[in-house]
Amino acid sequence: MDYTVVRSDELSKKKNDDRYVVTDLDGNVLDDCQGYGFKSEDSAYKSYVYKISGNQVLNSSNQKKKVINDWCDNNSEFCEKINQIFKIIDIKTLPEIDAEKLMSILFEMNGYTNLPFKIKNFILVYDRYLSF
């Protein structure tokens, strides 16, 4: 992955709330939402992935996996927390737990409300941090 999302102090100050931009690894701005900044990290990722995919709908499993892997690379602390939770709660031995609902709650509790993927795809595709 050759981009990341960072909080823009300049745009956050202008808008009087947190604003985010997509940058390359050297800190050069790749996308700043037409100078306004994105309202969330998730919306910046989602928009940029859409932009660089040639505005194609992300349908293939490889594309979905790349989006999820990129997101988790940039949110590794959260993904590691999820892994720790699922080490305690063995989802395989407790089938009455709705994994999608649980994941939805965990994402929301941690401020991830505008994800660039569906939670069910996260559960199905992502296997590097999660062990279920």
Write the topology of this structure.
Blueprint: E1 3-7, H1 9-15, E2 20-24, E3 29-31, H2 41-52, H3 61-74, H4 76-88, H5 99-109, H6 119-125
Total strands: the figure is 3
Percent of residues in β-strands: 5-15%
Strand order of the largest sheet: 1-2-3
The main β sheet shows up as: 3 strands, antiparallel
Counting DSSP H or I runs of 4 or more residues, the number of helices is 6
Gross morphology is globular
Which residues sit in consecutive blocks of at least 5 with pLDDT less than 50? none
Overview of the molecule:
The protein has six helices and three strands. Strand 2 and strand 3 form a beta hairpin. It is mainly α. The protein is globular and about 50 Å long.
Features:
3 strands, 132 residues, mainly alpha, three-stranded antiparallel β-sheet
Describe what is shown at a glance.
This protein is mainly α.
